[in-house]
Design a protein that fits this description.
With 285 residues, this protein is α+β, with helices and mostly antiparallel strands. It has three domains: 3-89, Orthogonal Bundle (Arc Repressor Mutant, subunit A); 117-200, SH3 type barrels (Roll), CATH 2.30.30; 205-284, no CATH class. The chain is 34% helix and 23% strand. The chain has nine helices and eleven strands. It has helices at 3-19, 24-31, 35-48, 77-87, 117-129, 201-204, 219-228, 245-251, 273-284, and strands at 21-22, 53-56, 61-64, 132-137, 148-159, 164-170, 175-180, 184-191, 206-213, 236-241, 268-270. The strands form three sheets. The protein has a five-stranded antiparallel beta sheet. It has a three-stranded antiparallel beta sheet with strand order 1-3-2. The longest helix has 17 residues, at 3-19. The radius of gyration is 25 Å and the shape is extended. The model has no long low-confidence stretch (mean pLDDT 93). Residues 118-183 form the WYL domain. InterPro entries: CapW-like, CapW_CTD, CBASS_pafABC_assoc_protein, WHD_CapW, WYL_dom. Residues 209-275 form the DNA-binding transcriptional repressor CapW C-terminal dimerisation domain.
Length: 285
């Protein structure tokens, strides 16, 4: 089956499963195909998934049968919520939303971080060609209140969920560091790399973070947290690059677990804390 056809059949099934119905116009509007093609798609779906469709003559719409069984997709709440997020203008990982009748919803807005296109293009070129590059960078260090030109050898980009940074070897500090992409104001002068990407041990090494429900919660609360995070025997493991451990700690507020009086504000804690702290110390040294 051609990819385009299979994608439209998946769309038909998505609408049937999550919204209860579909018509030809939905397929035409979503994919830009002709009405006859949309009719063929619905007929093909009926052949491939017999018994899933019921035609409602009064509504002129196909509805999902009571014993509907998906054939072209695996029902996943995360997939639906990603489409819902997309209707709100968020970067959810889907290229376009498949929802026709989304429930009223909203999402927490995240302030836009400006990244200069020319800067990003030049950084990508340096990564691709294995070069170093000078960036006019504004540090947040009290010792560097003004921007300065710094030569770096970039090899990767990282994201902490809120902002992008460049993972690069710093020719001033002689070590691999993170440079916030939106604070790189200009670029210039490609040159020889100061280090190989393979030498960035903290980027390539990963640490398994073991998470468990906060023991200060009630038994029932710990049980729902374990279910919420898909834990097995009260524990889940997350593989994180050592270079991203600090951001992981901050994003999940794991550094506040022992400091807040209200455990409900930090529902999970690090179960392998000693090993985690050691790995974090290595990553932030």
């Amino acid at each position: 089956m051609r990819w385009g056809v299979e994608k439209r059949l998946e769309f038909i099934e998505f609408r049937l499963f999550w919204e209860g119905g579909i018509n030809r116009a939905d397929i035409v509007d979503q994919f830009g195909v002709s009405v006859p093609q949309a009719s063929k798609d619905l007929t093909l779906y009926e052949e491939k998934a017999p018994g899933n469709l019921i035609y409602d003559k009064s509504a002129k719409r196909y509805k999902a049968a009571d014993d509907f069984k998906p054939v072209f997709m695996q029902p996943n709440a995360s997939t639906y919520l990603a489409h819902l997020r997309e209707t709100n203008g968020g970067a959810s990982g889907v290229t376009e939303a498949w929802l026709a009748s989304a429930p009223e919803h909203d999402a927490l807005p995240i302030p836009h971080r400006r990244v200069e296109a020319d800067v990003l293009r030049d950084v990508l070129k340096a990564i691709r060609e294995g070069h170093s590059i000078e960036v006019f960078y504004q540090s947040m260090s009290a010792k560097k209140p003004s921007p300065e030109w710094r030569r770096i050898s970039p090899h990767a980009l990282g994201n902490d969920g809120l902002r992008w940074h460049i993972r690069a070897f710093c020719h001033i500090d002689h070590k691999f560091k993170d440079f916030i992409l939106s604070r790189c104001m200009k670029t210039r002068k490609h040159g020889l790399s100061g280090a190989s990407a393979n030498d960035d041990k903290l980027w390539h090494d990963r640490f398994v973070v073991a998470l468990a429900p906060n023991p200060a919660l009630s038994e029932s609360q710990r049980s729902i947290i374990a279910q919420d995070y898909e834990m097995t025997n009260g524990r889940t493991e997350v593989m994180v690059r050592k270079a991203l451990l600090y951001y992981f700690l901050k994003r999940l507020r794991l550094d506040f677990a022992d400091k807040l009086d209200n455990p409900h504000e930090v529902p999970v804690v690090v179960a392998n804390r000693a090993a985690f702290d050691a790995a974090l110390a290595e990553a932030t040294a």
